[in-house]
Every structure is written in structure tokens, then in C-alpha cells.
Amino acid sequence: MNRNYSKFVSLLIVLTLAVSFLAGCGGSNNNATKPEPSKAAADPSPASKSSNEKVKVTFMNLWAKDNTENIATSVRAALAKFQEENPDIIVEEESIGDQNAYYTKLKTLAASNDLPDIFISKGSELAMFAKNQTVASLDEILADDVAWKEGFLPTSFNDLSTAGHIYGVPFSMLATSVIYYNKKIFADAGVETFPTTWAEFESAIEKIKALGITPIALGNKEQWVANSCVLSALGDRFTGSDWFTSINNKAGAKFTDPEFVNGLAALQGLAKMGAFNKDMNSINNDQQKTVYFNGKAAMFLEGSWAIGAVMAAPPEIAENTEVAVFPSVDGGKGAAKATSGGAGSGYAVGVKGYATKKEAIAKVLKAISGAEFAKDLAEKGEPVAYKVADYDKSNVKSLAVKYADLSAELQFTPIYDSYLSPALISQMNAGLQDLLINSVSPEELAKRIQTEYEKGN
Amino acid sequence: MNHGNSLRIKKSTLLWLLVPSIAIYTFVMIIPLILSFYYSLTDWTGGPTKAFIGFDNYRFLMKDSLFWESFHNNLIILLFTIVFQMSLAFILTSLFMSKAMRLKEFHRTVIFFPVVLSAVVVGFIWQMMYSQDYGIVNTVLKSVGLDSYIMPWLDDPKVVIYAVTLPLIWQFLGIPMIIFMSAVQGISKDIYETCELDGCTGIKKAIYITFPLIYDTIKVVIMLSISSNMLVFSHIYVLTGGGPGTSSMVLAQYAYKTSFTSMQLGYGSAVTIGMFILSFGLVLVFKWLAEVKK
Amino acid sequence: MPVRMFRRAGGFVFNTIMAVFSLSCIFPIVWIAYSSLKTKDDFMLNSISLPTHLQFNNYYKAFVEGEMYKYFISSTLNTLVTVVCVVFLSFCVAYVLSRFRFRGRNLIYTFFIAGMLIPVYGLIVPLFLQFKIFGLYDKFYTLILPYIAIRLSLPIFLLESFIKTVPVELDEAAYMDGASTSYTMTKIVLPICKPIISTVIILTFLDTWNEFPFSLVLVTKSFLKTLPVGLTNFYGQYTSDYTTLMAAMVLSILPVMLVYFIFNKNIIQGMTAGAVKG
Fold first, then answer.
1. Which residues in chain A are contacts of B246 at CB distance < 8 A?
2. CATH number of the domain at C67-276, out of 3.90.580.10, 3.65.10.10, 1.10.3720.10, 1.10.220.10?
3. Bridge pairing between strands A161-162 and A55-61
């Protein structure tokens, strides 16, 4: 029995190792032997196949099936229409409504070079996927249809390009930092117009505090809010966009530069003077809106995507809500009429799918980003990434009009987390929570971020 | 204890009984673990190439303050859980033996009930409990006039790790309690009766009889506690996401973050393996301590 | 007489304290349950008060509009199959490990028990690769395999120590009468193990029912996804609609509660020897 048994055990060990080996190498082989996107694309056979056979295009997105956001309904409408017109292409959707869950799955797929044919990705993740050669460069399909490419706003590809190649197609143009404020509370506090200088801003905050109302509702539990919705815009006031360009190109600028440190200090200053609710690091961005909707806060900072939610808020809040951006700061190098913004996210294409069904993918992409889609979205009052000449403005809600007026005179500055590496962002985000509760100084945090930044070099 | 028995089994039967489990378990747990170890020896960041870098990741891990801070947090959680959960469970067990206690079945059912909840539900419940404005904790404090203790419980880096431990103690209190209670049932009634004749009170009975007699059981419970508290992740993730900053970060979340947020899969695997080794080490150290003490 | 009255009063105080303690243990759940019947605004106004009038709109929203019913089917199937397999497999292994001496016995025991220390998220990427290579990805049976495997350790641990406490003479007598191994296992030992198996069923059921990462990563088709993954969609959208969220949570724990109350009676005896002797 013993001999038989040890035989069995050794067999098991051999099997285990064999399978590990297979899986381990299989993984790297998958990646290593994967064809160059351009070469595979030149291979005509899959394209001819697609004419008589149905092609499946997988599409992974962040919008739960019953999502009622404008962007989700517009994309679904465009897809439904596309399916009618193109019975030979089947778009298979997978929707994961939770950001963290979505990116966990996406990165698992990326690690085994198995990204969906079309998926939504943030710029920073996309840059990483591009570096890993798991997403396809879309230069070629964009060049093949010049009208489509030229239709996009010229800056909308910025967030989705790396090393001179475009990896994503934008679907909307967002400001990530908009100040939504309740003009009634401001008036009650004796502030008639939105402050235009930092000193005025601070005094307005003091006055609102005196009313017993939280000046700014902040929900930074998920850690990206303070970065995307506050610091990206506030930091730029101090540093100017050239500084960030230099950071991004690794051309000499440092996070320890005094301008950036001043930006961090200004953020911490707001926290120190009690501008935020005390539980800012344990509620999330939906809950920060709830605080504002209950009239317990005078402002909240979030991207332009929050317009819809504000419009759906109780009327006494929705009607009194105005939009603004940060006031200018003394000695800041950044433009005053600016806020962080861009495409932020876009549709990207996995290399495997691209290699075999390029045409089908391109068709789907055009349907969910092109003129018709953009017009539909614009008519709902959403900011679009595609030039829409004239559209029916009658359904655009008042706050969206206000936002459109505001954004018309704004220039967009880079959203930090669309460009910096995920590792750096994760370090920065955790640090910002520390900064907000005063457990790290701006200088110290700047040093930490710089160290992580240099590691990535 | 049965090793002296005369039972014999056919080799083929033995294999048939073991092989399916071993095969599934190996395929799902062991091979990925081996692969993980292999990844941990590379600088893989999800790309087409992984360069073999030997034990560099582990060298870095030794100096990674965040890793050790997370481990430290795990230890705090573990310590507090063992101390409070166990003593509470032990006290409850002793009380359950009292004849004066009514509705035993009801109490047992209710105290064990939270065990069946999912981490997400527990995290949500406690987030609401701690909530600044709607939370029960602050509402209660206010109603009893302890306004000065009102605080955002999850926002103070000094308090947060204890605030996230409490739900864990609460949820899993039922497990050690049930185990202790059943262990006590196994103790012969005669011992207690003899003791009562000698004039033992409830407390003395608990200390001098119950405790020594269920010592082995306590060891088992501590082992289970080590294994579950070293792996704790979802509860804290839902409650605080590891924040503020990294003050409530635990090992499992750190491994998750390096692998899935930053996509440093090589290093993330090293964190995973490091965590496995630390847990295993803790179990061994504890086993050794428990033996020596005896 | 006074002594008895004093005793009674003491007993009363003691029982009251116990009741308060028990209720405070279950209060958070009771709170969620009754809050789920309030309107959002009612809840915001006073989070602790009882609902003034019951309204089940939140449940409708969660179950129908939130499409929770879709995920119930897949969750139920996966969980039931897993529970049956885990009970069967862990009983086989535990029986062998506790009854027979053979070379490698301790190795196999440690091998299974070590599973209690393996962090699941560390397995996802390699496991995904394996499933891809072997074509096991996104099939109706995909989740069952990992669900069984990650649940094996604790049941083996509990069952092994329980069976050890069952007098070995029972088996010996059966063998002497010429019974086969399978007969002895299923007809002699298994009935005695009923209580611990109840425990195993409850724990396996709730762990499987609540499992998240594998269901997220290993399947793509929406009808294969389980409830916890479905719930994230829902949570994401209703983050601040607390009362609807609470309704969804109550719905998601109902099946586990049901199983708990069915098998609860046996659990104490189950744990008795299960963990006592280690």
C-alpha cells in the first residue's frame, strides 16, 4: 500500500508541476507570441470571413443594465440601432456597475492578455495597458475614416494617447472639478456673487461656517475625489499646466516644486479651517451629494457628470444650484478660467479582438461615438467629445445650460489621474486623505509622491 | 487517538476517497499558489514579459514599511479579537450554565445570528452605525449626554483600527461561543457537582474547572481566529477602504491594492506569499507556545 | 421566603441584562430590517425611529427594478451543488484521515488545513489563466469547481476532529460483520455525524452564497453571475438611497437565514466534538 501510495503522491506532484508550468508559460506565451497589431490587421482573411458569418464583438462597460444616466441610455440606444442595421455583428455586453469591481476584472483580463474587444478605460490604465501591449493602437482605424476622426474635438484624444499613439476613442468631454453651490445659502451668509479671489473664497467659507452649515461637502472615502475633483484643478491654479506637462514627460519638474507644494498646502488649509465635513474620508461621492441635497452643505465639488443628479435633487436645492470653478490664487501660474477636464475615459480595444475583427470593431466604435450618438447625447445636455453643429436644445435642463455657458469660457487642464501611473496615483490618493486630516505636511507628502514618481522612471 | 486501531482499508478505496478532493483542491488552490510564488520571483506588471529577478521582491518586502504596518494592523485586530471575543464568549458560556438563565435557545440563536451575514452587509451596517449624522453610535451618545465623545469614528487614524475591529468581534462572537458551549457540554456533570458540594461559586467553577478543561478547545478557537483575522479584507474594505490614508490597511488589502490597483503583479504576488508565510508562521509560533505552556 | 424572593429578583435582573445583551447583538439587523420599510426621507429625518407606516416600495425597487431576481437563480444553483459536493467530499477525506494510518497522512492533513490561510485574491490571476487554458472559463459549471475547493478546508478540519471522537469500535464491529467501507461510512458513521454536518452546511452555504471575487472574474454572461456581483451594480447606483439598499440587503440574506433556521437546532451538538478535541 505504501509503495502504491507514494507512487500516487509523486504522480500528483509531477502533475501539479506540469500544470503549473503549462499555465505559467501559457500565460507568458500568450503574451509573448501575440502578433503585432499592425501585422495581424493586414491579414485579410478574417475580414472576408466576417462578411458571411456573424461576428461577435464583446463590449465591457461600467453601466449597469438599468442605469439611467444619460451616457448609458445614449450608448444603449445607439447600440440597439446598430444591431438593427448590422445583423451580421453581434455586440455582447458585459456590465459591471461598480468601479472597483470593474477594474479588478479588467486588470485580471489584461494580465492574461484577454481584454474584451471593446471596453471602457481611464487614461492612466490605458497607458499601462499600452505599455504592456495588451490594447491595440487605434491610429489606423481612425486614419481610415478621416471624417470620423476630424469630428472629435481636437483635445479630446489627449487623455487617451501615449507615446504618440491613440489608444482610446472618447465618448464625452468632462470637467472633473466643478463647484456646485447653493446660491441661497451663499446669500444667507452674505455672499452675493461667487468669490473670484482665494481670500474672498476663504472669507465666504468662514461666513457659511458661521451659519452652522458645512461649507463644502466632501466624500473622499474612495480616495479619487480629492484628487480628481479638487486637487487637479486647485493644483493647476498654482503650478500652471506647463508644470504638469513637464511632469508627464519626465522633463524636469518635480512634485516637490514649491508651486505644487503650495497647491497641497491650500487644500490642507481648507481642511484646517473646517471647510469640509468631519467625516470626509469615510463617506463617498454619492453621500457627499446627499449631504448637499439635504441642505446641510453650501457646496460640493465633483465632475460635470453630477449635473444630472443635481437636477434630480429636491427642487429647492436644484433650482438654487449654480456652477463655478475655483477662484484664482495669488502668485499662481495657472489660468483662472480653467479647470481640470478632458475625455477622462474612452473606448479601448483589446489586441486579440483587434487582430481578427478590426472592421467590425471599428463599425461598433463609430456607432457609439460618432455624430449621431453625440447629437443624441448633446440633446440631453451632456458635454460631448464630438463636434455637434446644431441640435435641439429644448430638452436641455437649466443647470446644463449654465454649465455649458461656464465651460464655453474655460480651458481644460490635465486631470492628474488620467496621466500618472496607477501606482503613483494610489500613493497620492492615500496621501491626500492623510493631508486632509492633517497627519502629513504638504512638504512631506510632496516628497513621498516624488519618491514614488522617481521609482517609475 | 485512533491510531492504534485495527482498521484496514484497500489502497484503491483509499485513493478513491481522497483523489477527487485532492485533485480539485490542487487545481484551484495549490497550482495558483505555486504560480503566485513563481510570479513573485519576477518583475511582472501585467505585460508580455516577466523578467526573473530572484528574491528581489522579497528583499524589498522586508523593507516595505506599508507591508509591516498592514501586518501590524492585522496583529492589533487579531489581539483584540482574541482578547475580547474570547473572554466575552467564555463569560457567556459560563452564564449559559447558570440555572437562573431563561430562554437559552433564544439567546444562542440570536448571538450566533450575525455570523451568517456577508461582509458587505456587515460593512454597510457598521458604516451606518458609525455615520456622523445618521449613525446609531453618535445618536446614542447624544441621548445619554456624552456629546463630547461624538466623533466621525472612521476618520480618526488613531481610532479607526479599533472601530473596524469592533464589527469583527461582534459578527463572529457566535463562533467561539458555540464552540465553548459544546465543549462545556462534554464536561462531566459530576465534576461540577463535586465542586458545588465543596462550596464553589459560579465564578470559581468557571476559573478552576471550565477553563482548564476546555483549554484545548480554546487553542483550536485561537487557531481559527488567526486564520480568519489574517485574511480579513472585505469588512474593512467596505468600511474604510483602508483609510484614512493607510491607517486601517490590512495585509489582504495591501496585496489586492498592489496587484489590482497598481498592477504590480510580481510584487503583489510577493505580498500574497509573504502574507501566507506570516500567517503560517503565526500558527506555528502559537502551536509551539501552547505546547510549551502545557 | 425573602431569600427566594431575593433570588427571583436577582434572576430577573440577570435575565434582563442577558436579554438586553442579546438584543443589542441583533439590533443592527433588526434596525436594517425595519428601516428598509421606511421612506428615504423618513430615514434621513430620524434614523432610529420605527417606520410610521409600512411601505414595501423599497423591496419592489430592489427586487424588480434592481433586477435582483435574475441573480437568485444562479446563486441558488451554485450554492446547492457546492454544499452537496463539499459535504460529500469533506466527509470522505475526513473519514479516511481520522480512521486510517498511512504514510503521508499528516502531509495530506496539513495540505488541506493550509487552505484556511490562503488569501483568495492572490489566486485570481493565475486561476483565471488556468481556466482559460483548460477552456473552463464562463461555463455553467465554472464557479462550482473553485467554490468547492475554497470551502474544503474548514469542513475537513471540523469533520476530522468530530469523527475522531466517534468510538472506533463501531467501525471495527461493522467490518468484522463483513461490511464494506462505503457501508460503514454511510450507514454507521454518517448518521452520527449529522450534527456536525449541519454546521458544515450552514457555514458552506453562507460562504458560497456570499462569495464575490471568483464570480466577478471567472464568468462573463450575466445569467451565470451570482447575487453578490449583481448587488455591486445595485449598490453603485443606489449608494445614497439607504432604505432601498437596506431592502436589497434584507432580500440577499433571506435564503441564508432560512438555511440557518433549518439547521440551527443541530449546530450546538455539531460543534461539540467538532472543535473540542482539535
1. 430, 434
2. 1.10.3720.10
3. unpaired
